[in-house]
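Hello forum,

I keep getting stuck at the same step: I have a sequence, I want structure tokens, and every attempt I make locally crashes halfway through. Rather than fight my setup again tonight, could one of you with a working pipeline run this one for me? It's a single chain of 752 residues.
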Amino acid sequence: MTGRFANIIVDISHEKVDRPFQYRIPQALCGQLAVGMAVMIPFGRGNKLIRGYVMELTDKAEYDERKLKEIASIVKGGVSAQGDAIRLAGWIKENYGSTMIAALKTVLPVKQKSKLVVKKSIHSKVDAQTALDKSLAFEKKHQTAKARLMKALVAQPILPQTLVTGKLNITAQTLRALQQADLIEIQEENAFRNPLPHAVQSGWQRGGKKELSSNQRAIVTRIMAEFRRGIRQTYLLHGVTGSGKTEVYMELIEQVISEGRQTIMLIPEIALTYQTLVRFYQRFGERVSVMNSRLSAGERSDQFERAAKGEVDIIIGPRSALFTPFQRLGLVIIDEEHESSYKSESMPKYHAREVAGELCRIKGASLLLGSATPSLESYYRAQKGEIKLFELKERLAGGQLPQVYIEDLRDELRSGNRSIFSRRLHTLLEERLEKGEQSMLFLNRRGYAGFVSCRACGYVVKCPHCDVSLSEHTVKNRASRLVCHYCGYETPPVTNCPQCGSKYILGFRAGTQQIEELLHKEFPTARILRMDADTTKSKDSYEQILSQFANEEADILVGTQMIVKGHDFAKVTLVGILAADMSLHAGDYRAGERTFQLLTQAAGRAGRSTLAGEVVIQTYQPEHYTIIHAANQDYKGFYEEEIAYRDLMMYPPAAHMMAVLILSEDELEGEEHAKELSDRAVSRFAENRPTIIGPSAAAVGKINDVYRNVFYIKHREYQVLVDIKDNLEQFIEQAQWSRCSIQFDFNPINTY
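Reply #2:
Ran it on my machine without issues. Output:
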């Protein structure tokens, strides 16, 4: 993109991204500037030349162009790491419908400056014999503090000041006296805060490298051969649960580091951090650091500073770790790449997988995606040949996949069992307690939206227009209506099943706390841990619960999806999935994929060592292809059926979809604006024939007195959606809707 003016940010390392400043582009530099370039600009009243970064090129002057200053020159030496951040922000702005400031605040690593921690140490300025002589001399003069310190410096010529003033009880006055006598000196250095959990720091032992299997070795060899030839690609590693994907990651990281490059390792949940860190710390030591939202401001600032200075080679963390300011980035790994937590829920609504691809292109790095249940987007690209696919089809050490039982809850109801535990699950839990083995119970609450189903025959009330389940909306604790969150279709609640006539048709209601209480009642001697949003509010709560369970201090771990991803517990031989249908009918087109992934991941927690594992899947629809393929750990079978459905309905990845969310303080005004924008998308892009769903009220129609309306646009070509977004943005800017704001979300993870 070219333009007559450039919007420039001057200090991107500062806590506050204040605002850009606009400059004229001189004739001599026309066509030479690009987003991310460093330039010298006259700044302030004195027109002092300072460094700035081009964040946007435009033909629109925001002020009287005669009063705008000119860019002085382009800084030689190419685009810096800071410039790379600007370029990435520009890409995010264009592809996700964001403002440049919002994009900058996303990619800029240092959010706030924190006071540095200063570490002081006492250094002896004399040799050991002189220090001993001085010690004896001080003793004769009854100067015991001086004698004590000099004697300590004989054995260890450098001592931490905390030890000197603490255990040795040396005062500041004594230290000054010894300084003046030229016997010691006090040195200061900045000390970075260590964000690693204490359990990781204190208990680690260097080692942890395992011999790779022939399949693992072949994958590493092929990727590194291309890396050393300068070929940078995106790879997808599809490995069954327990197949050793992490060992592949670590071997690749070790070899990339040996080439003088750095690595970012993304993990989906903070809950995975502890176990992952232990393994990586054992392998790589203090060259590993962690980044996540639970760190203090000082810890985050320190880790970014260490990364910028090249003091760490590996950063592990969720999607925000992607913006670590590495100078020599060589590899980005996204573990469990299918996870929805990689999609930002705030503006800009970027996906870490897509942004990582652009970051790797800018930095000249390789991208590796790994999962036992790849996203349909990634596997679709692999099938089209856009990315390379590697597979690990067997568990390590010959371990077998668990035996899976599908329990039909309709049969349980007919036999008189109204408990949340099927008879088989209850029996298997008893057996595990007798054997001293561990169990995990998973309540599939993800995507829960109050779907309505029949407990007798499994019928689910669906939208006749969108092929997704209707969601139950209640007023004052009573059912009021069933609503489609895509097109807005409504129907009154049903009292009897339309298929079998049963009165047992209602929304499913259950929680982890209720399950924990039932377990205590049914198994009074069992040691039970619960892991959900309520029990993991404190900073180290994840680590505490997981370490307790790993140390066999509990028999049963019950929780939501955070317990089923990536964890490896040798004594877990039973996994119970209590309500497989809860996400299967969550009211959006990704429900089947999300359910398959969760069930497969959950099943994969059982029998990961020498002990055989069993899995119980409880469902009202045992015949559903998602349930069957998950039980068989058959990803390809599931993919073939699911992609056929997506292609038929024009859902991603077979097509692309953009959600347009209209937020308004006035209800009628919001509805009018939503209709106006959807009509404009249809009329202005008629030749492209986009498919429009809606507009309608969002699932949550009002938040904090702001009304929410939404419509969806589908098209086979992503660029058409970007063009529609650009056109709507221009229209909105011209219309100047003061009480209304618009958000764009490409290929949304959840419905609105």
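The chain has six domains: 5-107, 117-191, 207-397, 400-450+509-645, 451-507, 656-746. If your local run keeps crashing, start a new thread with the error log.
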